[in-house]
Design brief:
Length: about 100
């Protein structure tokens, strides 16, 4: 299951992680966000111990969304060593996320 991150815990969970981190910026009302959620949950199980999968609700965490320039959702940012290493905007197949994550391992 994906970790919930927000304005108060984002830096500790995402930026200080010693593993690659996939962060899904989403909102409850976003249809495409709900479409990719099952794939991201599968990825969190498949990569347990190798990578971190997190979700950030843009309505509840406007500071983080603003800091990373999130304008469209879903946007998935891939972090490595505390920096954005890759990005995926929009609903895409699971393999697209897996390929980007594999490149960071």
């Amino acid at each position: 299951m994906a970790l919930e991150v927000n304005d108060s815990n984002f830096d500790d969970i995402v930026l200080k992680s010693d593993k690659p981190v996939l962060v899904d910026f989403w909102a409850e009302w976003c249809g495409p966000c709900r479409m990719i959620a099952p794939a991201l949950d599968e990825i969190s199980k498949d990569y347990e111990g190798k990578a971190v999968v997190a979700k950030c609700d843009v309505d509840e965490s406007p500071e983080v969304a603003s800091r990373f320039g999130i304008r469209n959702i879903p946007t998935v940012l891939f972090f490595k060593d505390g920096k954005v290493a890759d990005k995926q905007v929009g609903a895409v197949p699971k393999k697209n996320f897996v390929t980007k994550l594999e490149n960071l391992l």
